[in-house]
Amino acid sequence: METIPQNIKLTVPFFMVTDMEVSLKFYLDGLGFKLTNQWTPRGVIEWCWLERDAVSIMLQQPRKPNAEQSRSLGSGITICYQCADALALYHEFNTKGLTPSEPFVGNGLWVVSVKDPDGYRLDFSSMTDVPEETQYSDWAK
Q1: Contact in structure between 129 and 31 (CB atoms under 8 Å)
Q2: C or N: which end of the chain has fewer Cβ atoms within 10 Å?
Q3: Residues 105, 108, 113, 119: is their CA dihedral positive or negative?
């Protein structure tokens, strides 16, 4: 059987945002991403590439915002990040002023969710042997 060489190497979520400055504060200061590339044709960032560990995302603020699109940005979209320790991220995000949901166990994973300024849901999860549907507040007692 013929071996097909791997061609697709990476997938990168690309979020349209309503306010680049607010989004950058959330992702850089709150979630700890680093700005690794940017496009500034008019002296302000209109597109950027952010990285944290082995994960990348792209953000872009449209030049002419569409009011209808702005209302629905992030609606129904969840990006799931597999992590070594989601609970450590929960504590980190809280110390940076974010409001992640209370961690819970689902599908054998601790899950920590946070929404970005445009409503995109970001789930950070890590493997656990804690029983299903356990809430962090019950487990941490």
Answers
A1: no
A2: N
A3: negative
- Could you give the CA distance from residue 115 to residue 22 in angstroms, rounded to a whole number? 13
What is the C-alpha to C-alpha distance for residues 129 and 29, in angstroms, rounded to an integer? 31
Laid out side by side, the sheet with 109-115 consists of: 78-82, 121-127, 109-115, 104-106
pLDDT in tens, 17-73: 999 999 999 999 999 999 999 999 999 999 999 999 999 999 999 887 665 555 678
Instruction: Give the global pTM.
Output: 0.85
User: What is the identity of the amino acid at 42?
Assistant: R
For the chain, list the domains and their CATH numbers: 11-63 (3.10.180.10), 79-141 (3.10.180.10)
Which two structure tokens, joined as six digits, stand for 46? 């209109």
